[in-house]
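Archive record
______________

***
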Amino acid sequence: MRALFYNKEANAAGCYLIKFYVNGVPTGVMIDDLFLTDGKTVWFSRSKGGKFWVSLIEKAWAKLLGSYTRIVGAFSEFNVLHVLSGTPSDWIDLKKLRNDKKL
């Protein structure tokens, strides 16, 4: 996950460049560290211990897709593993695979 961040430390400007691989090409997505909250809790993903790298990656992912609403159950038109790592990957529906083998 560290490899996704161009800047490895928090910065006073609150700007972060996250690297995704779109069609195999490293693509930077610039985001800020402002998040929607209810005053106590971040609305979307979060991690324990006050770390905010999870929220930063999710925000960059939403920006890449166009909005948070396009992130549905962790699925989108992109294969997430491929976009995060740049390596070839594929999706296997294990439930469907089990059902097909019963036939």
